């Protein structure tokens, strides 16, 4: 008897890594596919199920093992399809480009007239090139470009085409689909036209794939009262974290992990203005080409590694790469120039810049970025202008000068000395006071940051 999982892994390993990366091909292992199949409530054994990018057929095999009678699979790789035919002789299988071809061509090849009840799988994700999507459908290509310009976007649109009126799509896709601006049009369409049944955060699941992934399960036709189940892969099961009404979202979809997450988010967005309301200057990447231009690695929290604190000017320099372990790393840039590895924002004078510097380094603002901008991503992300502008921001008359005093100390004291940490802790306490958080909310934020940030950013390690 053939060991399917072992043989599938062997076949995948035989493929050239560069070929896989350039075509966005990374197969789903047996365990994850089993969890996804078990999550789907198949209505009866005669429903029509298809995996349009089936690879070695893990979803096809598991669907058949579950007792489903009408299981279909497609893949561009003829050898992979031959592999599936040996494993699953009862499946309906063809080799073709299911993303470049429209659903009518697919239905014709299978000699069927009715659309599918379930579309499942793990489509390839890779930025589009002139060779990755070969079709003459101008409007389809235009839609793909407007919706994010990635092959998995095209695959999702094709899945939507081949689905019947109450059909279900369950796809593994990049997690950044939920919050990156380039996918905004597509997100809004999904929120309008589909019921999102569940989103499962599976983290960085695939080796050699940059970024984290989710399992997105949608049902065609929007239920006005739909509630999204937000789950996370833990201990080899999909654990329910919380449920959110779909109409809570209008565009960006935040993966709240608890009721506390939701309530703090609501407080941030109802009670406070944003940094965008105060900072009217430039926010964006540095662009200097000078050899002595400041780069990201020159910056530490509240200062520059090899230069004294600047006194004149109106710039804040931020390392362009944000990590959950370190949080924001920024300094007052004065009148210096910075290259593209630095995000810059400007305001009228050094005083306000230093006040902003104090707030954005706080645990509270790093919590906001981690949770509500980067969706709990543990990988590095870009510190882009739209994230910075969305930060909840208060200019507090009573504590303004206190924040400036602490920032001045953090700029001039020995970096990461015991005294430096004392002032960093005092800064965090005053920021919590400025935002009028309860003790319960403070404890929740502190505990979240402790779980994600590196030990070195805590004075007790």
Q: What is the spatial order of strands in the main beta sheet?
A: 3-2-1-4-5-7-6-8-9
Strand content: 15-25%
Structural class: alpha/beta
Quote the average pLDDT.
92
The shape, in one word, is elongated
Rg is 25 Å
Strand runs, count: 19
Oligomer: single chain
| CATH fold category name of the largest domain | Rossmann fold
Helix-residue proportion: 25-40%
Q: How far do the termini sit from each other?
A: 53 Å
What are the salient characteristics of this protein?
single chain; 461 residues; alpha/beta; Rossmann fold; Adenine-n6-DNA-methyltransferase TaqI, Chain A, domain 2; 2 domains; 9-stranded mixed β-sheet; 4-stranded antiparallel β-sheet; 17 helices; elongated
Gist?
With 461 residues, the chain is of the alpha/beta class. It has 17 helices and 19 strands.
Q: What this model shows, in words?
A:
The chain has 17 helices and 19 strands. By secondary structure, it is α/β, with parallel strands linked by helices. The protein folds into 2 domains: 4-257, Vaccinia Virus protein VP39 (Rossmann fold); 273-457, Adenine-n6-DNA-methyltransferase TaqI, Chain A, domain 2 (Alpha-Beta Complex), CATH 3.90.220. The strands form 5 sheets. It has a 9-stranded mixed β-sheet with strand order 3-2-1-4-5-7-6-8-9, with helices on both faces. A 4-stranded antiparallel β-sheet has the order 11-17-14-16. A hairpin with a 2-residue loop joins β8 and β9 (237-245). α3 (30-39) packs across α4, α12 (350-360) crosses α15 and α13 (363-373) crosses α17. The longest helix is centred in the last third of the chain and has 17 residues, at 418-434. It is elongated, with a radius of gyration of 25 Å. The N and C termini lie far apart (53 Å).
